[in-house]
Structures are given as C-alpha cells and as structure tokens.
Amino acid sequence: MRDRFKSLRAEIIAIIIGFSFLIALMVAILSFFISRRYLLESQRQSSYINIQLLGNEINSDLNSVIAFSNRLLLDPAVENYLSGIKAGSGEDRNADARKLSMDTWTHLNSEYRINSSYELINRFMVSVPDGSEFLHIARVQNNSTLTLAGNIREAPFFEELISSDDYSYIGLVSSPVNANDRVRILPVIRPVRRFYSSDIIGFIYLEIPADVIAAHINNIHFPEDCRLYLTFSDTATYRYENGEFVTDRLPSGLVDYSLPDKEIRISLLPSRSELRSRTFFYIVIVFLVLCFIILTGSVIYVLLRRMINDPVDALLLKLERTGNGDFSRDPLIEWDNELGQIGRGINDLSQRVDALIHERVGNERAKQALEYRVLQSQVNPHFMYNTLNTIKWMATIQGADGIADMSTALSRLLKNVSKSSEQIIPLQSEIELLNDYFTIMKYRYGGTIELIYEIEDDSLLTSPVNRFSLQPIVENAIFHGIEPKGSAGKITIHVYSKAAHLYIDVTDNGVGMDEELISGLFEGSQGGGNDFFKDVGIANVHNRIRFSFGEEYGLSAKSVPGEYTTIHFDYPLKNSADDEP
Asked: Which of 219, 333, 447, 562 would suit a FRET pair with 418, their CA atoms being 20 to 30 Å apart?
C-alpha cells in the first residue's frame, strides 16, 4: 500500500488547504489595501468637499469686497473729490475743500453702510497719491486720523499691491492704520484713475479682518487633529489653530483647493485618528471574511475526504488485483461520477489487457510461421542470380554481348534491391546503379537514348545521397519525356556544388511539362513507367531527401513544353564518411 502522505488524496487535500489559505490570505491582503485606499480616497474626497465649501464662502466674501471696491473706483464722487480737493487757493479753497470732503464722506459712508460687504470691511480709505488728503470711513475706532494715509503708503505691501495688474493678496498682516490693533487683516489697495485717461489721481484702501475667514472656518466641523492652512500667492502660509492664524510651512499629504481667479489656496491635512478608527473597522470585517473562507475550506476538506477516500481505496484495490492477474470486471467501482468513469476505464483496460495477452500469443505463433516463409522465399533471389549468371556466360560464349550486358546489369540491380539495406550511399554508388538500369533501357530502345554526365569535381562523387534517387528521375524522363517525343533523346546529369550545397540537375530534351503536371509530380500523381520501380516515384524521392537531410532540401522542377524538363536535386555537401557512426 502506498504511503498515505504521498497519495493522490493527500495531495488533493493539501492543495485544497493550501489554496484555501492562499485565497484567504490574498482576499485579506487585497481587501485591506483596497479598503484602506477607499478610506483614503473617501477621506480626501470628504476633506476636499469641506474645503471647497469653505473656499466658496470665502470667495463669495472676497467677490463682494471686490465689487464694492470696483464701485468706488467707478464712483464719480470719488473722482470729483480726488480731482478737486487741491484745486483753488486761499480761504475759498479751504471752504470748498471742506464742503467737498464732507459731501463725499457722507456719500461714501451711506454707500458703505447699505452695501452687502459692510460686515466684511473694517475700514476703507480714499486718498490722493501722496496721502496728504484722504477720506476715512471705519466700523472701528483708531487712535489717530492725521497720518493714516501716510502709514498706509509706508506699509511694506503698499507698492506691491498698488502696482499689481489686478487684485492681489499678500497675506494676513497687522493693520498699518492702527498699530495697537492686534487683529490681522487682509489689505486691498487699488489705484484710482481718471475716467478718460490713465492718469492715477489717488488710491483706495480696504481692510478685511481675518475674523471674516475664521468665522467661515468655525462654521464647518473638522476633526480635532485636522490641520487647515491658507496660502496667499504661494509666498505666505498660515495654519489656523485655536481661532488664530499662525505662520507655518505646508506639510505633505494635503488636500488642496484654489479659489477661482485668486491666488489663494486652502489646504487641509486629513485626520489620522479618524482614518485609524475606520481602518480598524475594515480590518474587523476583513478578519471575519478570512475566518469565513477558512471555515468554508475546512468544510470542503471534510466533504472531499468522504467523497474521495472510499472510491480511491476501491480503485487501488482493483488495481492491485489486476496486477496479481485478476482481469475480471468489477462493477462495484463503476459509480455515476468521474471516479466511476475511471473505474469503468480500469475494468475496460483489464479486459483489453487480457485480450492482448491472448492476441500476443497468437501473434508469436504467426510470427514464427512468417519467419519460416521468409526463409523459404530467400531461395528465389539466389536462384534468379544464378540463372542470370548462367545466361550471361552462355551469351558471352555465343558472342551475344547485348544479352550478356543486360543480364549483368539486371543481376546487379536485383542484388541491390534484395540484399542491400543501406538508405544513404555515396553519389558514385548511385551512379553505378543508374548505369545498370540505363544499360537495360538503352538496349530496350535500340540505342536511341543517350545518358551524359557533367561532373565538375570528382570529389563530389563521395557526397552522400539517397539510394535509388536518380533512377526514378531518369525513368520518368524516358517514359514521360523522350518516349512521347517519338525520336532519339538525350538525358544530361550535371553535378556541381555551391555554398555547401550539392546540386544535381537531370535534364531531358523531351516533350516538357506544364505547371499542372509539375505539381502532380510532387503530389505523387505521376509514378514510374514500369512495374519494377513503380513504387519509387518523384514525390517519393523528394520526401525521402527531406526526411533524411532536412526540410530545406529536396527536389524542384523547371520545364518548357516542347523543349526540355529539368529536375533539380538539392543535397547538403559533405563526405559520405561523415555519416558513418
């Protein structure tokens, strides 16, 4: 009995357990990575939605401030004030200036308070370029109003903002208007130009408190360990923490959202604790799936043991009985499943083995009888050789040289056909066989056919060729080429070599062939012309060359109807001694 640990059953069970564990492990690993990736993407998507919502609210406020600023830039009262505040001289000038300032201030204050951006702007100012004359409107008090415009002009961000082509945001800074004001603001400065020229006649200044941005941040719930960052023009970055904006640098792993048409970017570092809690939840699910797969594999293992063990034991017992010589059919192993098919196969095999044993005994007896008959048939060739030799000597004595030559040639041909078993012989030996055959054919046709050899180098005669390969070609040339012509004919055999190939061209000046007949040659439809070599046709020669030397060698044909036919041999060029073991 085979070792149970090396049995097919053990291998199947081991494979099932191994695959169950492998599948469970792969499912667990893939589930973990897929769930973690899903969690990361879900968290980043949720974070992006939050900061997009925050960004849209901040962007809406900034657009409202910009709209108010654009109204100031296009307000005729602002242009009249900046153009006429320094006009005139003397006491009339001072009176006109005070009246112009009061009227403009009243107008702007009214516009400011009824505007939707009122809660977004702490203060705004309209000033001439040098800051000597200005109008200031604010929701908050400041310590001094005498040098406000000058303080703004001396602020480090003034030149950058006023020279910008569009609205620009440098970041959250302390107010230059009130040094005691610790609240950070986002300054907005734009130049005021004349309506009908590009001359700058002043500037406007607005302050947006950072509390406006903080209020929007506080309205959105972020996990405690999230980190929110604001970046202005890729130069100033602030981290929002405990209601304040602290200068900081951007870490990796952020989710970004850029405000439309503004160089302001909001970045959020997602919560790690939230990710850990969700990851733990998915790990529990993956673990439960893993346990389910392992449990399923265990149930399959138990079922397979019951389904396989008993049938396999019965099959092994039947094989053991068969090995001991019991070839009877056992119907108990022919179940209605795949193992039952194997059982039926074993029963069929046992009966076939029994039949083969009886057949083998009969074949041995028939073989012995056949060998006896073959031994008897060997008398006939020896009798023919002796008879032909007797005819040859009688013809020689009587001076009938033609009969002697034909008898000698036929005797050698019969000897080669019946005795020699070599399939590959030197070209010289093949030519000798061909000469014997042609001697017979020459006398048969009364000397009207001629065989000519053109051998470029005698060393080529040692190259190996297939035995009885030239004779069928010459025979085909005589019976299908020259004989239908009805006149004398000539067959030329040209032997030459090139590039490690031995080439033999057999050319006759017979009736030729068309393409259909040439195709028939290599399909085996054209055979020999007599009964002696009728089984050795051109297709046979072509196939034997390919079988012996390779697919790249063999025969080809070229013919012109009414002129000639050439059969081209292609052999590898080597000495016949190379084929000897």
From this structure: 447
Give 519-544 pLDDT, tens digit per residue.
Answer: 777 765 444 444 433 444 788 888 88
Residue 223 DSSP label: -
Six-digit token string for 396? 């020689």
Phi, psi of 489 (to 5 degrees): -140, 165
Sign of CA dihedral 289, 291, 297, 302: negative
Q: How far apart are CA 371 and CA 374, in angstroms?
A: 5
Tell me 229's DSSP state: E
Rounded distance, CA 264 to CA 252, Å? 18
Say what the pLDDT of residue 504 is. 95
In order of 526, 542, 560, the CA distances from 514 in angstroms are 14, 19, 7
For residues 146-166, average pLDDT: 85
DSSP string, 283-339: HHHHHHHHHHHHHHHHHHHHHHHHHHHHHHHHHHHHHHHHHTT-----GGG--SSHH
Which CATH architecture does the domain made up of 75-214 adopt? 2-Layer Sandwich (3.30)
The full DSSP string for 106-165 is HHHHHHHHHSTTGGG-SEEEEE-TTSSSEEEEESS--S-SSSHHHHHHHSTTHHHHHTSS
Query: Is the pLDDT score of 167 beyond 80?
Result: yes
Residue with tokens 């973990």: 32
Cα–Cα distances in angstroms (integers) from residue 16 to residues 6, 35, 42, 289, in the given order: 15, 27, 37, 18
Q: Is the pLDDT of residue 580 over 50?
A: no
Do the beta carbons of residue 410 and residue 387 sit within 8 Å? no
Least confident of 108-117, 247-256, 364-373, 531-540: 364-373
pTM of the model: 0.48
At residue 554, the 3 state secondary structure works out as strand
- Assigned superfamily of 422-579: Histidine kinase-like ATPase, C-terminal domain (3.30.565.10)
